[in-house]
Amino acid sequence: MSAAGLPVCLTRPPKLVLHPPPVSKSEIQSIPGISHTCRKTTKKQAKKGKSPEEVLKKYLQKVRHPPDEDCTICMERLSAPSGYKGPQPAVKPDLVGKLVKCGHIFHLHCLVAMYNNGNKDGSLQCPTCKTIYGVKTGTQPPGKMEYHLIPHALPGHSDCKTIRIIYNIPPGVQGPEHPNPGKSFTARGFPRHCYLPDSEKGRKVLKLLLVAWDRRLIFAIGTSSTTGESDTVIWNEIHHKTEFGSNLTGHGYPDINYLDNVLAEL
Domain RING-type spans what residues (predicted)? Predict the structure, then answer.
């Protein structure tokens, strides 16, 4: 009873549910329409492409009369020379180009410098709208991705089973494509379990995740945003759901927008 003589109702706080109920090996099934249940990556290096100038030439049209606006890379006017102050690319600082698919305009000088600071894999990503030109690859360290069906439903998806994805990346030594080549890196929190509904849209997400895994785009080596630890394996811009039966941290279900959002990212 409260001080005022009224009954007090004590409620328990919501419980974090990270994992599904126990699943036996006999209950685990392969996913219809998707071959195999495991994918590995190795230390494949990014393909050595042509010179940055040759790569950009495929994706650009020269602009003879630049518009009166800023280059969003160096923030100088497009009608003036590039303001980039780093190592100087082998193109004139006053040349301007337009990306052919999205139409955004930059100094060629700035685009070459941006390409040189990236993975140098022959692809280019527009810094304004993120449109990708060519085939983007990443620097994910070697590991294994498993995927299969379990006989439990996610909150908000009671009409279907669940796709469980298990990522496992061991610690190791950084390669030449990583931030600190030759230095060891850590891999905290593995194996990491993630979940998708076994719906048409969920299977579409899985197929694209498999492409992202093969292109080494799901993880990277960097500094953890949660612990501040450097030289460690981190997520790389593709959001995953790591809570099975709750959404207390924003990384679980129900979430009616998640599948559409992750499809847009992929």
Answer: 71-130
